Task: structure prediction
Amino acid sequence: MRMGVIGSGMVGQRLAADLARLGHEVVVGTRDPGKLEGFVAEHPGVRAATNAGAAAFGEMILLATRWEGTREALDLAGEENLNGKTLVDITNPLDFSGGRPALALGWNTSAGEQVQGWIPGARVVKALNIVTADAMLNPRTFVGGEPDMFIAGNDAAAKGEVTRLLEGVGWGVVDLGDITMSRYIEPLALIWITHAANSGWTKRDHAFKLLNR
Amino acid sequence: MRMGVIGSGMVGQRLAADLARLGHEVVVGTRDPGKLEGFVAEHPGVRAATNAGAAAFGEMILLATRWEGTREALDLAGEENLNGKTLVDITNPLDFSGGRPALALGWNTSAGEQVQGWIPGARVVKALNIVTADAMLNPRTFVGGEPDMFIAGNDAAAKGEVTRLLEGVGWGVVDLGDITMSRYIEPLALIWITHAANSGWTKRDHAFKLLNR
Result:
């Protein structure tokens, strides 16, 4: 599948590398594609382009930007390159201004809803925002069974595509409903981050699982 | 230990029964103690009283009220009967007015913070709000290992008491920090409820676990 990754930081690079390893064709979008020369050279199957180039290339788009740069990155990607496409929103609206991580927004809105509002024609699916980057496409590395990924979005077909990708690498997928359910998924990222911060960042390898009985 | 349970609905009754089974002395507080005659007769070790009676009796208080009745229940319990005590806040600020469950408040506040604000002298610990009542003190019934309970509160000693109670019955306990961390724990209840509602309420037996690697 042709994958466009918007965001070329640690998360975007790791996703691009893992998607290529899984056999997808990947283009990473960035302001300055030249900066990714070394990364691209080390990862056959990954190319670098502008955000618009990555968005135009991808059949599926993965949004892996810092929250504060998300809107601009989507503007650069171009609505016309995103309309109709499945857009996996991995962002977390983090606010570090208080000295410890908090949500910059929530309760009656969410990053997922904001992104869907900015690109109404995209089929936004909230997913993958509740684990560290190198676990996103490597959930089988967790001990104690299959971890679960909570997803949300308005388009059933788009959620189906994302579910196939996630289940294919070993996630259990729990579809919570429409994109407003991002309000309840994004706080999980704060639990993840707070648990990591409380450990002095020695704990970075946790994922959520729903147990049953 | 002497336990005071505030709230005599399904959750309060189940907690009282399970606490008595564990060997604690339990008083359940309610507006009309006479209504609990049958329940009390079937559960040796449990007595019924007013909220003030239950609060005065308990060394530890478990708050298991519907959110909309919580403030009044605490007023009836009486600040003087709660000051200095560990108060386990099991409430979830639910709003069903939109046709599906939502949080009545969140993001920059939480039920846990509201409760702590109403009774500043109590040592409030958010806990147990993310599973169904009959699992709260029976976590060993889940399949796939020890589920985890996320807790939050300002008082380390109170969290220690709650941790001993929870670990004693089989929870892993993850202390996220002060009572403001309730902002991230209460959304988990909405994930629980939404997952149950999406299944037509056939799924009511799930709990969260943190996997590691």
The mean pLDDT of chain B is 97.
